[in-house]
Amino acid sequence: MATTTAKSTYLKGIVDSSPFILVIIPFASLFGLVATEAGLSVIETLTFSIVVIAGAAQFTALQLMQEQAPTLVVIISSLAVNLRMAMYSAALTPYIGAAPLWQRALAAYLTVDQSYVVSVAEYERRPEMSIPMRMAYFFGVVTPIVPLWYGFTFIGAYLGAWFPDGWALDFAIPITFLAMIAPMFRTLAHVVAALVAVAVSLLAAGIPYSLGLMVAGVAGMMAGAQTELWQERKRGRAE
Questions:
Q1: What is the domain partition of the chain in residue ranges?
Q2: Which of 76, 141, 204, 231 is the most buried (most CB within 10 A)?
Q3: DSSP structure class, residue 45
Q4: How far apart, in whole angstroms, are the C-alpha atoms of residue 105 and residue 25?
Q5: Distance in angstroms (rounded) separating the CA atoms of residues 14 and 17
Protein backbone atom coordinates (compact mmCIF):
# COMPACT_ATOMS: atom_id res chain seq x y z
CA MET A 1 0.00 0.00 0.00
CA ALA A 2 2.84 2.38 0.90
CA THR A 3 4.51 1.73 -2.46
CA THR A 4 1.24 2.43 -4.30
CA THR A 5 0.76 5.65 -2.33
CA ALA A 6 4.31 6.80 -3.04
CA LYS A 7 3.89 5.97 -6.71
CA SER A 8 0.60 7.88 -6.99
CA THR A 9 2.16 10.83 -5.19
CA TYR A 10 5.12 10.74 -7.58
CA LEU A 11 2.76 10.74 -10.56
CA LYS A 12 0.80 13.64 -9.06
CA GLY A 13 4.04 15.61 -8.86
CA ILE A 14 4.62 15.04 -12.56
CA VAL A 15 1.10 16.20 -13.40
CA ASP A 16 1.28 19.28 -11.16
CA SER A 17 4.55 20.48 -12.68
CA SER A 18 3.63 19.69 -16.29
CA PRO A 19 2.36 23.22 -17.09
CA PHE A 20 5.94 24.47 -16.72
CA ILE A 21 6.90 22.37 -19.74
CA LEU A 22 5.39 25.10 -21.92
CA VAL A 23 7.98 27.60 -20.72
CA ILE A 24 10.90 25.35 -19.83
CA ILE A 25 11.31 24.30 -23.48
CA PRO A 26 11.73 27.83 -24.92
CA PHE A 27 13.59 28.98 -21.78
CA ALA A 28 16.21 26.22 -22.07
CA SER A 29 16.41 26.64 -25.84
CA LEU A 30 17.01 30.35 -25.39
CA PHE A 31 19.81 29.70 -22.93
CA GLY A 32 21.49 27.30 -25.34
CA LEU A 33 21.20 29.85 -28.12
CA VAL A 34 22.50 32.76 -26.02
CA ALA A 35 25.35 30.68 -24.62
CA THR A 36 26.63 29.71 -28.05
CA GLU A 37 26.28 33.32 -29.21
CA ALA A 38 28.39 34.29 -26.21
CA GLY A 39 31.17 31.99 -27.44
CA LEU A 40 30.56 28.78 -25.50
CA SER A 41 30.71 25.46 -27.31
CA VAL A 42 27.79 23.04 -27.30
CA ILE A 43 29.52 20.84 -24.70
CA GLU A 44 30.41 23.84 -22.52
CA THR A 45 26.83 25.07 -22.71
CA LEU A 46 25.37 21.70 -21.73
CA THR A 47 27.91 21.30 -18.92
CA PHE A 48 26.97 24.77 -17.68
CA SER A 49 23.32 23.73 -17.38
CA ILE A 50 24.10 20.37 -15.76
CA VAL A 51 26.50 21.75 -13.17
CA VAL A 52 24.74 25.01 -12.30
CA ILE A 53 21.09 24.12 -13.10
CA ALA A 54 19.87 27.61 -12.22
CA GLY A 55 18.39 29.49 -15.16
CA ALA A 56 18.42 33.02 -13.78
CA ALA A 57 22.00 32.75 -12.51
CA GLN A 58 23.11 31.24 -15.81
CA PHE A 59 21.60 34.10 -17.82
CA THR A 60 23.13 36.61 -15.40
CA ALA A 61 26.58 35.09 -15.81
CA LEU A 62 26.27 35.04 -19.60
CA GLN A 63 25.14 38.65 -19.78
CA LEU A 64 28.01 39.81 -17.61
CA MET A 65 30.48 37.73 -19.60
CA GLN A 66 29.24 39.36 -22.80
CA GLU A 67 29.72 42.76 -21.16
CA GLN A 68 33.29 41.68 -20.31
CA ALA A 69 32.67 42.22 -16.62
CA PRO A 70 35.48 41.23 -14.22
CA THR A 71 35.41 37.57 -13.25
CA LEU A 72 34.83 38.45 -9.60
CA VAL A 73 31.75 40.49 -10.54
CA VAL A 74 30.39 37.58 -12.60
CA ILE A 75 30.86 35.14 -9.71
CA ILE A 76 29.45 37.44 -7.02
CA SER A 77 26.46 38.46 -9.14
CA SER A 78 25.60 34.85 -9.99
CA LEU A 79 25.88 33.85 -6.34
CA ALA A 80 23.69 36.78 -5.33
CA VAL A 81 21.01 35.75 -7.81
CA ASN A 82 21.19 32.21 -6.45
CA LEU A 83 20.91 33.22 -2.81
CA ARG A 84 17.20 32.45 -3.12
CA MET A 85 18.17 28.78 -3.20
CA ALA A 86 19.38 29.08 0.38
CA MET A 87 15.95 30.43 1.34
CA TYR A 88 14.29 27.62 -0.62
CA SER A 89 16.38 25.06 1.26
CA ALA A 90 15.47 26.60 4.60
CA ALA A 91 11.78 26.51 3.68
CA LEU A 92 11.96 22.86 2.54
CA THR A 93 13.86 21.63 5.60
CA PRO A 94 10.79 21.35 7.91
CA TYR A 95 9.13 19.14 5.29
CA ILE A 96 11.94 16.89 4.01
CA GLY A 97 14.76 17.49 6.49
CA ALA A 98 14.25 14.04 8.03
CA ALA A 99 14.68 12.20 4.72
CA PRO A 100 17.73 9.96 4.13
CA LEU A 101 20.95 11.83 3.37
CA TRP A 102 21.15 10.69 -0.25
CA GLN A 103 17.62 11.89 -0.92
CA ARG A 104 18.32 15.26 0.69
CA ALA A 105 21.53 15.60 -1.33
CA LEU A 106 19.71 14.83 -4.57
CA ALA A 107 16.88 17.19 -3.63
CA ALA A 108 19.41 19.95 -2.92
CA TYR A 109 20.83 19.59 -6.41
CA LEU A 110 17.35 19.46 -7.96
CA THR A 111 15.95 22.41 -6.03
CA VAL A 112 14.99 25.02 -8.60
CA ASP A 113 12.27 27.65 -8.66
CA GLN A 114 9.63 25.32 -10.06
CA SER A 115 10.36 22.37 -7.76
CA TYR A 116 10.29 24.64 -4.72
CA VAL A 117 7.09 26.49 -5.58
CA VAL A 118 5.07 23.44 -6.59
CA SER A 119 6.32 21.20 -3.76
CA VAL A 120 5.86 23.67 -0.91
CA ALA A 121 2.36 24.51 -2.12
CA GLU A 122 1.46 20.80 -2.01
CA TYR A 123 3.09 20.28 1.39
CA GLU A 124 1.09 23.16 2.82
CA ARG A 125 -2.15 21.80 1.36
CA ARG A 126 -1.46 18.27 2.66
CA PRO A 127 0.33 18.47 6.02
CA GLU A 128 -0.47 14.81 6.64
CA MET A 129 2.00 13.66 3.98
CA SER A 130 4.75 11.35 5.23
CA ILE A 131 8.42 11.96 4.47
CA PRO A 132 8.53 9.25 1.76
CA MET A 133 5.44 10.74 0.14
CA ARG A 134 6.92 14.24 0.22
CA MET A 135 10.13 13.02 -1.37
CA ALA A 136 8.18 11.07 -4.00
CA TYR A 137 6.18 14.17 -4.82
CA PHE A 138 9.31 16.35 -5.03
CA PHE A 139 11.03 13.95 -7.40
CA GLY A 140 7.85 13.74 -9.43
CA VAL A 141 7.81 17.51 -9.80
CA VAL A 142 11.36 17.65 -11.17
CA THR A 143 10.91 14.67 -13.51
CA PRO A 144 9.48 16.65 -16.45
CA ILE A 145 11.48 19.80 -15.69
CA VAL A 146 15.13 18.85 -15.27
CA PRO A 147 15.56 16.48 -18.24
CA LEU A 148 13.86 19.02 -20.49
CA TRP A 149 16.18 21.74 -19.20
CA TYR A 150 19.19 19.62 -20.14
CA GLY A 151 17.77 18.41 -23.43
CA PHE A 152 16.60 21.73 -24.81
CA THR A 153 19.75 23.49 -23.63
CA PHE A 154 21.57 21.07 -25.92
CA ILE A 155 19.08 21.53 -28.74
CA GLY A 156 19.20 25.31 -28.42
CA ALA A 157 22.99 25.28 -28.51
CA TYR A 158 23.26 22.77 -31.33
CA LEU A 159 20.56 24.26 -33.53
CA GLY A 160 20.88 27.85 -32.37
CA ALA A 161 21.82 29.15 -35.77
CA TRP A 162 18.54 27.79 -37.17
CA PHE A 163 16.28 29.76 -34.82
CA PRO A 164 14.84 32.78 -36.70
CA ASP A 165 15.25 36.10 -34.90
CA GLY A 166 11.50 36.66 -35.15
CA TRP A 167 10.75 33.79 -32.78
CA ALA A 168 11.60 35.98 -29.77
CA LEU A 169 12.11 33.08 -27.38
CA ASP A 170 12.97 35.48 -24.58
CA PHE A 171 9.23 35.78 -23.85
CA ALA A 172 9.62 32.59 -21.79
CA ILE A 173 11.74 34.27 -19.12
CA PRO A 174 9.18 36.74 -17.69
CA ILE A 175 6.31 34.26 -18.20
CA THR A 176 8.16 31.58 -16.22
CA PHE A 177 8.81 33.83 -13.24
CA LEU A 178 5.34 35.40 -13.32
CA ALA A 179 3.77 31.95 -13.28
CA MET A 180 5.85 31.02 -10.25
CA ILE A 181 5.63 34.15 -8.12
CA ALA A 182 2.03 35.24 -8.77
CA PRO A 183 0.50 32.56 -6.47
CA MET A 184 3.02 33.53 -3.75
CA PHE A 185 1.65 37.08 -3.31
CA ARG A 186 -0.28 36.05 -0.21
CA THR A 187 0.51 38.90 2.16
CA LEU A 188 1.04 42.65 2.07
CA ALA A 189 4.75 42.08 2.73
CA HIS A 190 5.07 39.99 -0.44
CA VAL A 191 3.36 42.65 -2.54
CA VAL A 192 5.43 45.48 -1.06
CA ALA A 193 8.68 43.56 -1.59
CA ALA A 194 7.81 42.92 -5.24
CA LEU A 195 6.74 46.51 -5.95
CA VAL A 196 9.82 48.00 -4.29
CA ALA A 197 12.13 45.60 -6.15
CA VAL A 198 10.53 46.50 -9.49
CA ALA A 199 10.72 50.25 -8.79
CA VAL A 200 14.34 50.14 -7.64
CA SER A 201 15.38 47.94 -10.58
CA LEU A 202 14.01 50.55 -12.98
CA LEU A 203 15.72 53.40 -11.15
CA ALA A 204 19.01 51.48 -10.94
CA ALA A 205 18.99 50.27 -14.54
CA GLY A 206 22.01 52.43 -15.36
CA ILE A 207 24.35 50.80 -12.85
CA PRO A 208 27.14 48.95 -14.71
CA TYR A 209 27.23 45.16 -15.06
CA SER A 210 23.51 44.86 -14.23
CA LEU A 211 24.31 45.31 -10.55
CA GLY A 212 21.12 47.30 -10.24
CA LEU A 213 19.25 44.00 -10.01
CA MET A 214 21.21 43.12 -6.88
CA VAL A 215 20.41 46.50 -5.37
CA ALA A 216 16.74 46.01 -6.25
CA GLY A 217 16.68 42.55 -4.70
CA VAL A 218 18.15 43.80 -1.43
CA ALA A 219 15.77 46.76 -1.37
CA GLY A 220 12.80 44.47 -1.96
CA MET A 221 13.79 42.10 0.83
CA MET A 222 14.31 45.00 3.25
CA ALA A 223 10.95 46.52 2.34
CA GLY A 224 9.20 43.18 2.81
CA ALA A 225 10.88 42.61 6.18
CA GLN A 226 9.98 46.09 7.39
CA THR A 227 6.39 45.59 6.30
CA GLU A 228 6.18 42.37 8.31
CA LEU A 229 7.64 44.12 11.38
CA TRP A 230 5.13 46.95 11.00
CA GLN A 231 2.26 44.45 10.76
CA GLU A 232 3.48 42.58 13.85
CA ARG A 233 3.72 45.81 15.86
CA LYS A 234 0.24 46.78 14.66
CA ARG A 235 -1.17 43.42 15.78
CA GLY A 236 0.62 43.76 19.11
CA ARG A 237 -0.95 47.15 19.79
CA ALA A 238 -4.37 45.82 18.80
CA GLU A 239 -4.07 42.97 21.30
A1: 2-184, 185-239
A2: 141
A3: H
A4: 26
A5: 5
The CA-to-CA distance between both ends of the chain, in Å, stands at 48
> In 3-state terms, what secondary structure has residue 68?
coil
Q: How far is the C-alpha of 90 from the C-alpha of 120, rounded, in Å?
A: 11
Q: Interior CA angle at 83 toward 79 and 86, to 5°? A: 130
Over residues 167-198, the pLDDT tens digits come to 555 555 555 555 555 555 667 877 888 788 88
The model's pTM? 0.70
How far apart are the C-alpha atoms of 194 and 213, rounded to whole Å?
12
| Interval 62-80: pLDDT, tens | 777 777 777 787 788 777 7
Q: Are 187 and 53 in contact (CB under 8 A)?
A: no
Q: At what angle do helices 172-181 and 21-37 cross, to 10 degrees?
A: 140
